[in-house]
Every structure is written in structure tokens, then in C-alpha cells.
Amino acid sequence: MATRHDTAAPPAKEGGAAPGRPPAVLTDADQRRRARLSRRWQRDKRWSPYAFVSPFFLLFLAFGLFPLLYTGWASLHQVELTAPTDMTWVGMRNYTRIFDDDFFWNAAKNTLTIGIIATVPQLLMAMGIAHILNYKLRASTFYRVAMLAPYATSIAAASLVFVLLFGRDYGMINWALHFVGIDAIDWQNDKWPSQIAVSSIIIWRWTGYNALIYLAAMQAIPQDLYESAALDGASRWRQFLHVTLPSLRPTILFTVVVSTIGASQVFGEPLLFDANKGASGGAEHQFQTLGLYLYEQGWVNQHLGRASAIAWTMFLILIVVGIVNYVISRRLRASS
Amino acid sequence: MPKARKVRRPKSAQAGGHMHGGPIAYIILTVFTIVSLFPLVWTAIAASRDNNRLAQNPPPFVFGSNLFHNLDVAWNDANLGTAFVNTTIVAGTSAATIVFLSTIAGFAFAKLRFRGRGALMLIVIGTMMVPPQLSVIPLYMMVAKLEWTDQLQAVILPSLVSAFGVFFMRQYLIQALPDEIIEAARVDGASSWRVVWHVVFPAARPAMAVLGMLMFVQTWNDFLWPFLVLSQTGNPTVQVAVAGLGRGYTPDQSLIMAGALLGTLPLLLVFAIFGKQIVGGIMQGAVKG
After folding, report:
1. Global pTM value
2. Main-chain dihedrals φ then ψ at residue A293, nearest 5 degrees
3. ipTM of predicted complex
């Protein structure tokens, strides 16, 4: 228990405790020096916070905000990769061109489905694992470190390994499936299997990371909430539903937003999942995402203006998703 | 007087975090650990075989004898020597700069009073929501105009900002740095920079180390932007070089796996040594204050 110093110690008498300063005889020079020091002190106190935060904001302006706005500007021009400085105003033509392109809608749909297949099971599993890790366990540090190991693996390395594991003829996964009587699945060329395979790379890399984030939030929940729920006779499952989940709502929202942003950007996994098809995302574009489509338009077909239009479309979609998320979370908060 | 019966609480009604995990908890965690680690272990197994053995059923489950040969060939084929030097420079510079800038900015947001603090912090959090990849086209134009293609500064410069870093250091310093120490240093006449140097940095050191490792891992694994500005053979980073191994119609899978293994190994070593701190750091960054 903390000692309350204000009651424990006798109140200081005014001017009693500290000996008063001897009356100082200040020369003019001294006074000027003090005034200068005090001015410098004031300046320092006033401006140094801005000095501390400005590098971040300057770098962000140069490499975050300016490029984002410039992408919007470039999306209204015809720009080719071969001469990136020659810009011809074309208005909305880049947007109408990509909206008329079936591959854009195909990529948008794939991004959505891969995003759902990758994000929903990932976050659900992360939640379950976090719940288990929240029990008292032996070797819990080992489990935490082990399940974070995929996070240390790069997209490139992970994708190449999963290509082999998902091989049609000699892949480990088809080999394991034949024991349960499932015929070889063409993970690269069939639409849904390929999307599941690409999603599984994402799930593998990020589930442990999200589990740790949920675990941290769970450990911050006050213990008495559980104790009073237990006294009321709530089962473990009801405690999870009525104590854990509501307390985790901000964290869940955070992970959903971050995962949504991540899912909208998926690029490396489908690019490398069929390295020879590269930017097309499979022979039939069956797992081409918007990120890949942007790369194909910009760097393979060399239309940077059109690629910019794709980027801005993605950005606008994200803003809409963000607003929807915000509205839903406010509704949930209001209803509880 | 009737003896008070001892009420045993039903087992199902115990309170959350105090519960001991049963065998099922261990089984689930073990399965999940195996799923997490298996692809990594299998990369090493596949890298130790030859290509023909990988095109047979069942797939190999034990190590072969080709590991060092494959590592050697992959190292030379993919220009991994250059790639390792490049990636170390890029990740090292980025991580160090991010840690420094995040610490001073995080300190200002955590402990200093200034006009616009709340609004600026909101902007920092907002920038975490802006996906960096949406900026690649103008960045590419800039790099092309400056003739920086294939040069490391093109990769380093855009990776020097991290809103997460600022947020992370702010969260840490709010708790770890008592206001009294700053005031004491102030009373002693220390300027703001001296306070940062002699008070903030020592107090923030554990968080700086963790943030440094997180940022090192992130930059080391960065793919899209290096892939766009660096060529796969001339001056690649490790990820770009490893990605290049997968090309060609009859690729040697064991070599690809050797390359993937080499690209992952340094980070797995970092994890084996500092795993506990990194886990702690991620969990720390997750809790909002």
C-alpha cells in the first residue's frame, strides 16, 4: 500500500523548511545573463517538442502523403513507364478503362475472396489460441516464440516453400490427403484450391502474430470481472462470451482494420505462387489480386497512369471499408 | 448451530485467467506449434536433397546429404553474398533511424506539453491506416528521375518512417519514464536534448532494442518495393534474390529451397536468441494506453 505523504509528513510551514536565499546582489551582467538563459530556456521548452516530432512528419510528407496525393494526380494522366515524366491529361479515362476491363473486376473479386479466406479463419484461430495461451501453462514462452517463427519468414521464402508443399504430383499436402481418400488437387490451376493455397500462406505467417496481440489484450482484462462472473455462475464459455469478447472489442477492431489493409495489398504470395505466370496470377488469372493487377498494368504493360487509377481505387475502397468498420463498432458500442 | 457446508465451486465456474490449462490445451498448442514450424524444418530437409528426390512420392521426411552443395550453388546462383550485404545495410540503417526518430517523437508525445499534440498524435495513428504500397508509383517515378534504380538509397529512404514505432515508444515511455525524473533534470538546468540523451534514452533502452528488432525483421522481409526498384541479379536484397530463384520452367527445387533457407536463417537465429523479447515487444505494442 502506498504511503500518503501528504498526511504522513507534517505540513511544511511557509518559508519554514527551506532556508531562504540570501539576498542576492546582482550585477547588470548577471541579470542579462540570467535573462538570456531564461529566454533560451523558454525557447527550448516551447519548440523542442516540435523538433522531436518533425522528422517523422517530414519523412511522412515526403514518402507517404505526397506520393499518395501524386498517385491521384497521375491517375488522371496518361503516363508510361518508359517516360515517367511525360504526363498527358486524360481526365477520368484511366478509371473508365480499368472499370471496363474484366480483369479488374476479376482481380477485385479475387482480392475479396482471398481476403476473406485468409482473414476470417486467421483471426478466429488467433482468438482461440490466445484464449488457450491465457491459461496457466508450462513452457508458454516456448509456444509463443514457436508460433511467431513464421512471422520471421519472408513472403518470398514462405511462398516458395508452400508452392512445393502444394505441388499437384509430389506435394506433401496431396500426399497426405490421399490417405483420407481425397484425389490429387491441382492447387495451382483450379480456382478455389489456388485461392485457398495462397490464403494459407498468409494464414500461416500471421496467425501467431495476431494471437499474441489478442493475448496481450486478454491479459489486460481485470481479473475481478472474471471472478464476479464466476460467482454469478457463468461457465467458462459464458465468461468468454460476456467478459473476454466485449473487453477485446477495440483490439478486434484494430486487427480487422490492419488485416483488411493487408489483404487489400496482397502481392508477393500470388506473384510467387506460380512464378512463371508472374503478374497474371495463374493461367486463368484465377488468383490475380488487385496488387498483382496494379503491377501488371504498371510494370508489365507499362501504363503507370492506369496503375495509379487502380491504386486510388484501392485506397477509396479502403476508406469505405474503414467507415463501415467505424459505423459498425459505434453501433456495437451503443447497443451494449 | 448447523455446520456451514463448505461450498465447492463447480469447476466450470472458475475465473478466466487463473485457470490451469488441461491436456487439451497442450494438445492444441502442440499441433499449432508443429504446423508453425514444419514448413521451416521441411525447407531444410528439401534443401538437403536433390531435385529428383523431391519429385517422388512420398516426399522426403529426413535429411539427405546434399545440403552444403545446394547451399553453395544457391549462394552463387542468386548472388546471395551481395544480397546479404545489401539487406544488412538496408535493414540496419532503417531500423536504427526508425528507433532514433520514434524515440524522440514518442518522448514528445508521451511527456511534453505542446500545442497540437493531440491532433498530431491522431495523424500519426491515422498514418498507420494508410497502406504504404499505394505510394509506389510516384516513388518509382522519383527514383527513376533521380536515376537511383538498382541503388540502395532507393530502398532505404522510404522505409525510414514508422508510425507504429512512434506509437510504440509513446506507449512505453508513458509508463517507463516518471515525470519526476524529467523535472529533476530540468531543475538541474538540462536542455531538452540533454534530457533526451541522459534520461530518455537510458530509460527507453529495452523498448528501443525490441523496436529495433521488430523493424529489422520487417525491413529484412520487405518485398514489393525492393522488387520494383532493384534488379534480381545485379543488386538485389535477399528477398528479391530468393524470389528470382523460382523462375525458369524446370527449376531445381532443392536449390530454391536452399535459397529460401539461406534467406530465412539469419532471422530465425535472431528469433532463437531474442524470441522472448520480441514476443514481449509485440504484446507491449498491442496494449493501448
Report:
1. 0.87
2. -65, -40
3. 0.88
